[in-house]
Amino acid sequence: MSHSVTLLWWGLAGLTVAGALAVLLVREMMRLMLGLGVFLVGIAGMYAWYGFGLLGVAEVFVYVGGVLVLFLLAITAMGRDSESRAIVRRLDVGAATVSLGLGAVLVLALRGLLPGTSPVAGATVEKTADALLGGLLSHFEIAGVVLLVGLVAALAIVGGGEDR
Amino acid sequence: MLSCALVAAGLYGVMTRRDLVAVLASIEVMLGGATLLLVAYGAAGSTPAAVASAQGYALLVLAVGAAEAAVGIALLVSLIRRGRTRSEDITEVRG
């Protein structure tokens, strides 16, 4: 693997981590959304780096173009930065311990299982479509049902609020 | 290692942030870390079919994550109508 390709991976990883830190630490909502956008773009770039171009494009379309815009709409509807006015709490030691513990358990569990990764070729749209409509057909159907249930649940939650 | 750190960081955000938008954003960080791990495993696959399957699985995770975000935002809209957006207020929402 060439030096520039490795450097690109580190750049994308830095972008992703910076976005995630902004989501965790920033109190002002619009800046938090900006951080989430940076995180999602970084993750999409990492997918593309690994050779999963379709997934990276889908991430940008679905999350950056859809979910992030929905979040911004919700913040605009709130009309205020609720958390920016809240008391800024100090580091929650219990939550930090649990999170670090989970991270350590995951690293220990996965250590040795993940070989050194590098970009791959072969994740073409045709092969992915073959997989989704072949061996993964049942998974594809279940995901469709989950999406339908999610849509109905969202409508029920918002509609239920209207009745009252 | 990066994906494990992202999952742990997202969990910290879920436990410490009080605003529902921030909690949802932290869940997205966790989901991104988990999907990144799936992609990394897929990239280590030996055959093109295995790599394509990994991409298929990751696309399904992406779709389910979008559904989760839609339900979360619906909850948020419902709470906004009541003038509350804190994560502990979520017990007030009934469909």
Characterization of the model:
Chain A is 75% helix and 0% strand. With 164 residues, chain A is an all-alpha fold. Chain B is mainly α. Chain B has 3 helices and no strands. In chain B, helix 1 runs antiparallel to helix 2 and helix 2 (20-43) packs antiparallel against helix 3. The longest helix of chain B is centred in the last third of the chain and has 34 residues, at 48-81. Classes of the chains: A mainly alpha (164), B mainly alpha (95). Chains A and B meet through helix 1, helix 2, helix 3, helix 4 and helix 5 of A and helix 1, helix 2 and helix 3 of B.
Highlighted features:
heterodimer, A: 164 residues, mainly alpha, 6 helices, 75% helix, globular, B: 95 residues, Helix Hairpins
How far apart the termini of chain B lie comes to 40 Å
Biggest sheet character of chain A: none
Helix amount of chain B: over 70%
Number of domains of chain A: 2
Low-confidence stretches of chain B: none
Please tell me what the overall shape of chain A is.
globular
Overall pLDDT level of chain B: 79
The percent of residues in helical segments of chain A reads over 70%
Per DSSP E runs of 2 or more residues, the count of β-strands of chain B stands at 0
User: Count of helices of chain B?
Assistant: 3
Number of DSSP E strands of chain A:
0
Q: Classify the beta-strand content of chain A into a percent band.
A: under 5%
Mean model confidence by pLDDT of chain A: 79
Q: Which structural class do you get from the secondary structure elements of chain B? A: mainly alpha
Shape-level CATH architecture of chain B: Orthogonal Bundle
Strand content of chain B: under 5%
Secondary structure: elements and pairs:
The complex is a heterodimer of chains A (164) and B (95).
Chain A: H1 3-25, H2 29-49, H3 53-78, H4 93-110, H5 125-132, H6 137-163
Helix pairs in contact in A: 1-2, 2-3
Chain B: H1 2-16, H2 20-43, H3 48-81
Helix pairs in contact in B: 1-2, 2-3
